[in-house]
Fold this sequence. Notes:
Blueprint: H1 2-22, H2 35-49, H3 68-78, H4 86-111, H5 114-125, H6 128-134, H7 140-159, H8 167-180, H9 183-198, H10 203-217, H11 219-248, H12 262-271, H13 275-282, H14 300-309, H15 312-327, H16 343-387, H17 402-413, H18 418-441, H19 447-474, H20 477-486, E1 494-497, H21 499-503, H22 512-517, E2 522-524, H23 525-528, E3 532-538, H24 539-551, E4 554-561, E5 571-578
Parallel strand pairs: 1-2, 1-3
Antiparallel strand pairs: 3-5, 4-5
Helix pairs in contact: 1-4, 2-3, 3-4, 4-5, 4-6, 4-7, 5-16, 7-8, 7-9, 8-9, 8-10, 8-11, 9-10, 9-15, 13-16, 15-16, 16-17, 16-18, 16-19, 17-19, 18-19
Amino acid sequence: MLNKIKIDRSAWILLAVCALVMIPFLGLADFNTKGEPREAVVAYSILDSGNWILPTNNGGEIPYKPPFFHWCIAAMSLLNGGVVNEFTSRLPSAIALIAMTVWTYVFVAKRREPLTGLATALIAFTTFELHRAGANCRVDMVLTAATVGAIYSLYTWWERGMKGVPWLGILMMSIGTLTKGPVGTLIPCLVIGIFLLLRGVNFFRAFFSLTAWALMSLVLPLAWYVAAYGQGGQEFLNLVLEENFGRMTSTMSYESCVNPWPYNIVTLVGGFVPWTLAVLMVVFVLPYRSYKRSPAADSWRELFRMCRTMPSVNLLATVAAATIFVFYCIPQSKRSVYLMPMYPFVAYYVAKLLIYVSRNKISVVKVFGDIMAAIAGLLFVCFIAIKAGIVPDSLFGTGRHAAQNIAMMHAIGDLSGFWAWLWMLVSPAAAVIWWTKWRKKCDVSTIVPAISGIIIAIYLSMAGAYQPAVLNVKSVKGITAEINRIAPQEEGELYEFISHGEFAAGDPIHYFQVDFYIGDRMASFYKRKPESGFLLIGDRDAEQYFPQFEAEGYVFEERYASPRKMLDQMPRLYKFYRR
């Protein structure tokens, strides 16, 4: 009972820390990529049209992902008075990361010990890939949390002797499928299926049990698919087949994030920063000579024997990490976020490694803490240098991104105000505390949490001050406000023309940021062929296609020229009518 109380209390503390690190800063940075507003505008369409089954965006386009993530954004926005903004759009991802972190702690702590559980949770939470995904308006973090939660739940069902129905696991798989398709059910069942076989469970019992849970998890998604097909028809069905089966079998009509399988290794190593550095440092001090290699270690029989005798949590982590990695090596389409369900399981082994080394040679782990503290302090030193004007603009040269980089540096230099200074001072304060108190007193039970504290301090300074200043330079929110002023809705509808989006196969390109900040009132000029209105078009597209449009009777009057490129062109706004 005492151990349970400690776990519960620590879980609440971990929940509070994660919420403090993630939630207050979600709305500080404007949308500055195409991915975030593309998802957010679907939620805008849900609330605007009342269509929760198959909402459209950008003038009638069917979204490429199932709607659970967009439902979450819409629900959060309803609590915000029906206003969809950056905060409500990113909140589902943040909640998913926080929930998965606490769940990971409780899951590991109850089966190993609280120290390993806490280290695993903190390491996973502070990896670059997971932390970034938790602050983004993308479906991947919700899918990751649902996948990992399903694996935890199905493992708990196995612990109970495979008795009863794992309702929570079924619900998690349903959420995963409603977030990004059948992969939300397939991966948890595949992981647990392999785990059960290596644990000696009869193949047919494992197969039919997991098949039953998989089919039950597909009931809710199937209901949505049927309802969506009733609205979208063959166009919707073709999209579902290509995005799910075509992507897995590399038979898509267009190329999407095509990379060779070693790409997954590179992104995993990069995504696990800064803990990648810790692993590289401690592996050199492991006592390799003390390990005895089994003479039969190369045989499959010996390998299966090792799997069946190793601790169950260790086997689960091994199977989950390996299965997810291999699974995403199969399709041509590869992205770093696909591997995120691996992270808690890899973090488990990283935690065990650091705890082991800390018991034998803690000085090596402390050096890693020194490096993190130095980075935390250097972050503030760089800010002071920029604020004092010591860093010249000429440092960025005259390349294609020089002007933007200079603008970002000036935005950092212009930071001021109580809250900005407060969050900027968090990272150097953590460095000072590390060198004056923590480093001397840290032992095996506190070293990983202490270093995690420094990394969290860096994230706080970044999210509370530096990152919004830098990212808002990349946003077109200000330009969109000018477009909205020049082309108000009462004077005509706003249309877009992007040749690559109209004529290229695959996921269409749109002015997603503009469409979101203008209230999702942008439609396709090429498809609608309207009689009048406003047109946003790139300079090269205008030069190439205006003669064709003018031959169709259109007359264009330029009203605004964007000072910045969008989609590698300089957009221009025209008032047009058709003779």
